[in-house]
Request: fold
Amino acid sequence: MLNFKSWTIAAPLTALLAFGTLSADAADAPALAKKGKPAIQSVGPLAFGPTGVLFVGDPKSATLFAIGVSPESSVPRAAEIKIEGIDRTISSLLGTSASEIVINDLAVQPTTGEVYFSVTRGKGPDAQPAIVRVDGAGKVSEVPLDKLNYESVSLNNAPAADAKDKRGGSLRTESITDIAYSDGRVFVAGLSNEDFASKLRAIPFPFKDTDAGTSVEIYHGAHGAFETRSPVRTFVPFDIGGKPHILAAYTCTPLVKFPLSDLKPGEKVRGVTVAELGNGNKPLDLIVYKKDGKSHLLLSNSKHGVMKISTDTLDKQEPITTRIAGTAGVAKETVTSLKGVEQLDRLNDRQAVVLIKDAAGYNLESIPLP
Amino acid sequence: MFGRITTPQSLVVILSLILGEASFPSSDCHAGEGPRIGLISKSAEHPAAFEAFGLPAAELVRLKSLEPNGPAFSRIFSVYVAGKTADASVPPVGGHYRVDGARLVFTPRYPPVPGLKYRAVLRLPAEKGQAGTLIEQELALPKEAEVETKPARVEQIYPSGDLLPENHLRFYIHFSQPIERGKAYEHLELLDEAGKPVELAFLELGEELWDPSGRRFTLLLDPGRIKQGLKPREEFGPILTKGRQYTLVVKPGWCDLRGRPLVAEFRKEFAVGPMIDKPINTKRWKFNAPRVGTADPLVIRFSHPLDHALLERTLTVVDGTGKMVPGRVVVADHERRWEFVPDSVWASGQHQLVVDTVLEDSAGNSIVRAFEVDQQHTITKSVTAETVTIPISLATANAASSASGEK
Reply:
């Protein structure tokens, strides 16, 4: 559902852009080892990594792809994006009707503000994957998936033991619920359709063959239970008190922090609940941004709209260890002007881009960061 | 300045296509009739494509000189998904162009959807005192011949038994045909004894859990409301309570890929028994002893139902050399019995059952640990495949007459 936008990486680059040097330095990007047509079977969550590298979760083949998407440096960065009926626009480009596509996720290339969508064309087992880009001029085009620089790593950890494969075709698939990139690692939250292996994996990038990363169990301090049994809905890597953490939102809606330094094979990762954000609610998408010298979180929800959450006191926040009827923890406010937001990402230092669902379909809009 | 041309010939083309004729009049037969547009069905030689032909020779020469697939092509010839009204903001269908003899061919990146109308637009610029030409035409591939199939129905829901543990986690819904994905959770409901829907019962995932065939949907009850101590359970209580009756309802509004609703609503009624909070204990499995020299099934009985899908793939029989024995698996007795019928007769030698430790019961308990694990347990963090092996006793050929294979 969500894509991490590493503001610590993006901020200097966007500062460069402000001075008109719109050069995404390809030399910064690690070379992607393979060239050609990656065997992408489906497209789910997206996240940008190093400049020009888009991570694409492929749930159908349980594979994480890194694909090279060169920034379109000739196109000016958009000051404002407003595309009403973006679902119709995308479906027309893909030669089908709006009811026959599903928009799975969006992510913004931090250096250029180009918006990338993962889209499924068709609704049956033969549905086809597509990556669609909206450039700075608002032009919508498709990213051809047949001539790419790419790398991939399989998330399916037990092919050798998969007897069904040997008997003819595995029925196992993996839902990838979220991916994020931070500091040389891709974090992937996933869930299988057969075994209940709710996992958060940390996969080093560039990928190494056969290295599907470390599977993490998050021990939840407050509840005395392994919170991975309640799958992570959406998360962002974020520095708290100078140390890298992951902030994860769960159903109903605890916000939990856990330090990445603990994330090593054989070691437990202890999560601490820093906020309870409201009852009967599913968190949908989460980003982090800076405004007036302070960092904030922006979280879209199924029931409670879009919330702006302060990060000032995250390091000092007293863990919530008792049952909370309403809300508690770090300060938050609801952004009442935003309704129907399903996806969001940081566009630049001042704006976010949101995918809004209304009665007619989907709209893509830029909004000032609240 | 464009002039509009509508020729009777082009209408003939449309009609022939709608009637399902894939053939297309060759440009030679229609030489001198002016520019026209057609939609060619897929064949063994080429994918479905839109073609403009009858173009002026000078225009063809110019097109051939252009950068292949460059933007100049789409200015001359583009294809749109036809809407109720012309919408200028909608981009043309993506694809690639080529000049093939006297034709300008546009092949969409994705094959045209049969039955969906496309609007093809050909714009030829003004030249040497002649007005430009604009041709617009709506085209559609014939709908695929519909094989008479019945609308989809629910064939089975696993677990197939009618007594489920309080901490039950997972259902598999099997359909007779592939079902439309994207709105699964709108068509599912868990009702309590009073017929009232249980709120927030399901783990609703953005990426729905379908098998590759699109016929099996995995429905997870929200693990946050199953596992003790987690927020959703504290807030709403457990989903299932021991001693009570529930009904899982698959509503008929769920459509197959042709947009037809299910034949009928499907209701799975079940009672709820005590929680199962222990790992699967393979020591409690009961094996028969198939006879060497026969193709008798190997039969294993479990103390409680295990996961249907995982039983299909996580148990493997290997022979004395470690080679997998080919055969067929039958899961029976409400997922309490696993039968393996070898393709050929049992050879002598120490056979083994290899069990992938991902095997679970319907409550998510695996061989390695219980779902309701606490912090005292050691957990495995690296992503590796693990198996346990269990020796299989085969009855010797001599004992064949007296052995009674369990069945």
Remarks:
- The first strand of chain B starts at residue 2 and ends at 4.
- Chain B is about 10% helix and 30% strand.
